[in-house]
Amino acid sequence: MKAIVFIDGNNFYFKLKELTSNESCRVDLLSFDYQNFAKWLVATNTLTQVRYYIGAVRRKNGKDKDKSERLYANQQKLLSKLDREQVSISLGVLIQHPDKTYHEKGVDVKLAVEMIRLARINEYDVAYLLSSDTDLVAAVQEVQAFGKQVVYVGIAKGQSYGLSQVANDVRLLRAEDIKQFLVPLLDLRH
């Protein structure tokens, strides 16, 4: 069966960070092996695409210029890495609220629309959804109406029970599942 892996980038990063907080590896999205992780995830299915959704960092002037330049440069490195690994990238918007926190806008909508569009044109049989955002429940149900299966991929702590209830299958990652795709701390010290 044809499979596409849909990754909510921000959600995935924080889930990986939480999952590996007590492990001897660190979350480094620049050295994470997305293609081999996706191949491992889909197992016997045929991986046709890996799709990554993230809010685009915008450059700023003024007092936040240095921070925005650093964030922008880091994101450009990540986007280049994803491109080299042939991961399709879809950008939403990253906005800063008055309380100085950053929030993504449009990322979940793009992910939902593409899951549905690609199901409608028969690009996959199984969607592997790496997000714990319950806003995606309706998209999962719509994809299933096209006769497609959805595997919700999350971690036990912070598991989306809404997505768990509607998905055809649930895969909860453990630290030992993803260690092979992360750079160990010891290797980073050399």
Give the total of beta strands: 7
| Mean pLDDT level | 87
When the domains are counted, the total is 1
CATH superfamily: 5'-nuclease
Please report the number of helical segments: 8
For the record, the CATH class is Alpha Beta
The coarse silhouette is globular
Distance between the termini: 42 Å
Structural class based on helices, strands and sheet pairing: alpha/beta
At a glance:
It contains eight helices and seven strands, in the order E-H-H-E-H-E-E-H-E-H-E-H-E-H-H. The chain has 190 residues and is α/β, with parallel strands linked by helices. Residues 185-190 have low confidence and may be disordered.
Provide keyphrases for this structure.
single chain, 190 residues, alpha/beta, Rossmann fold, 7-stranded mixed beta sheet, 41% helix, globular, disordered C terminus
What does this entry look like structurally?
This protein is α/β, with parallel strands linked by helices and 190 residues long. The protein has one domain (2-188): 3-Layer(aba) Sandwich (Rossmann fold). Helix content is 41%, strand content 25%. The protein has 8 helices and 7 strands, in the order E-H-H-E-H-E-E-H-E-H-E-H-E-H-H. It has helices at 9-19, 34-42, 65-84, 107-120, 137-145, 161-166, 175-178, 185-188; strands at 2-8, 46-56, 88-96, 102-105, 126-130, 149-155, 169-173. The protein has a 7-stranded mixed β-sheet with strand order 4-3-2-1-5-6-7, sandwiched between helices. The longest helix has 20 residues, at 65-84. It is globular, with a radius of gyration of 17 Å. Mean pLDDT is 87; it is low at 185-190.
